[in-house]
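User: Can you fold this complex?
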Amino acid sequence: QMQLVESGGGVVQPGRSLRLSCRASGFTFNNFGMFWVRQAPGKGLEWMALIWSDGSNKDYVDSVKGRFTISRDNSKNMLYLQMNYLRVEDTAMYYCVKSEGSGRGKNDALEMWGQGTMVTVSS
Amino acid sequence: QSVLTQPPSVSGAPGQRVTISCTGSRSNIGAGFDVHWYQLFPGKAPKLLIYGNNIRPAGVSERFSGSKSGTSASLAITGLQAEDEADFHCQSYDNRLYGLVFGGGTKLTVL
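Assistant: Here's the predicted assembly.
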């Protein structure tokens, strides 16, 4: 059974850092691109970061470029999101998401989602 | 403000049919990129409902269907059931923003 389980969320002060983790199971992790997608309270979904299946390419939404870093360890079936210089507007539920493909395809759907981990940035 | 536009809410009685629109532009849906739909329940993992504009993943009820025309897409739900109550979000790719774009989500209420 395919599963994604996020961890690492919590309450953090503005300007501080947090590292999210996602453990994947039930599928060949190194064959698929992975995303982090977030949903702020009362708002729509927003993609944060993408990493290709082999980790050779990473991309970010403009609002987090230079602050967030996506990475993966294919030997451990793990996905990570290092979040630095957190802002109040980063408060959201963060989802680990498996792409339908390797991450290269612009038409690939977000095939499977974790339950999410909540990040609250507040002083 | 989301790049794709969805109505904030729709409602219908059990057994009825409802549709949810998703309006984009020439840089996303109108550029030929596929539209995908996701179903979100509070406290649960979001679920892929429709991919490639009109394809249902295995296990998704035939009561759900998708379509796309021009710069818009639609999700139709027939034979409404109480358990369909959820938030629905559309998604595509935008070649001006160079990334995924989503709608703001539509809350379905079964009366």
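Chain A touches chain B through 21 residues (CB under 8 Å). Chain A is about 0% helix and 50% strand.
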